[in-house]
Amino acid sequence: MKFIITLAALFTITVSHAEENLTFSKDIAPIFYENCVNCHRPGEIAPFSLLDYESTRPWARSIRRVVNDRTMPPWHADSSKTEFLNDRSLSELEVQKIMQWVNQGSEKGNDSDLPKAPNFHDTWAMGEPDLIFHPERDFEVPVGDQEIPYQTIYYVTNITEDLYISGWEIRPTERASVHHANLVYQPQRTDNVGIVTAVMTGGAYIGSYLPGARPYRYPEGTAYLLPKGCQIGISVHYIGQKEPVVDHIMFGVQFAQGRVDKVIRTIGTYHSKFDIAPNEEEYVVETEATLLQPVDILSSGIHMHLRGSAYTTTAILPDGSKQLITDVPNYDFNWQSNYELAKPVSVPKGTKYHVRAVWNNSKSNPNVSDPSMRIRYGLWTDDEMLNTWSHVTVTGEKLGLEVKDGHVVSVAEGAIGSPKSQLVQTLPVQVNAPEQND
User: Fold this and answer.
1) If residue 233 lies in a helix (H) or strand (E), which one and from where to where?
2) Are 362 and 278 in contact (CB under 8 A)?
3) What is the pTM of this model?
4) What is the pLDDT of residues 118-154, one digit of tens each?
5) CA 188/CA 148 separation, integer angstroms
6) Domains in the chain and their CATH numbers?
7) Hey, which of 73, 101, 228, 419 would disulfide with 88, CB 3.0 to 4.6 Å?
8) Residues contacting residue 7 through CB under 8 Å, at least 6 positions apart
């Protein structure tokens, strides 16, 4: 967990470096390699690379500014309350080093001091997938069109037996054109793909591609199950660019290997009744679902549009006590994350999975171009929506599966539970119950 350093300690740190000339090779590259180059490298969403000095140096003053105001690296959860596995925020010491390096003239230093750069395989951030599902069709993105109907795209699948995966990544070839996408599996195809449709037809939500998203990897001893014969589909929200592009959106997976005792399941809430008044600075919706089984909560995520400003996910236990899952006081539509908990939150059956989300439709929100608009539910970024999720495992489940290359080869004696789909929560409801017009 990254705690705030006291002013006295920070002063000590600053003084200790005051006589030292910091260099890119020795002092700064390790920070960038650890926190920044997943995006800041060739072929990725960032506008420049931080893998080498020559690419970094022209941007030194801009780097100083965005690091100092905490715009970069993008991280919006409160890490003082919850520890996250994928926390990419910088420590105070790291911020001070970058500031000092730029103030001193941004020297390169000796090549011999440069650490080995991370090894990225082509354009897959997770490394080479064991299997890549390709879409049945590509999509030609209309030039400049900002209101393209959501595209339902199915993948070429031939899953002849249950497939257990340990991680996955959604990979568009035209990342700048994909606003977001939701990935599901279903027992059969439907005309439109969506999270609610998938669940209602006996399928499940796998995950999302969102601005700032990273590959998802499941904890050791767990796996996500793609059932035999399932259909994998994705609903994609495209936005037009200045030039015509054709996107080929892939779904890459890594096979589970070894012992698997728990399968990953998904819980969450959604909301579709909005009436946000012009210039309303704090519009609040609280939703919750009751858990029908004891679970260990592994992550937390949310999708709102431009006026989304904050959210908190809390577990309300049957005795009325509360346990914080995630607090995101500065939600940023442009950088949405799946916050992976360093320590799972274990809760009993009957716990209420509670989400408090806030929208800001005033001029104090830099993402709002016209605060005089009344905002309703809709698919476009000038409308609003709410989808929340957490990955969970069922407490006490001990499947005893021995898996090789994603397939079960044996089951241990005394196994407890079933990997098949099961009901984990009730339907979500709104609990702050304001009178709102549909």
Assistant:
1) strand 231-238
2) no
3) 0.83
4) 887 667 888 899 999 999 999 999 988 877 888 999 9
5) 26
6) 7-113 (no CATH), 131-256 (2.60.120.230), 265-396+420-430 (2.60.120.230)
7) 73
8) none
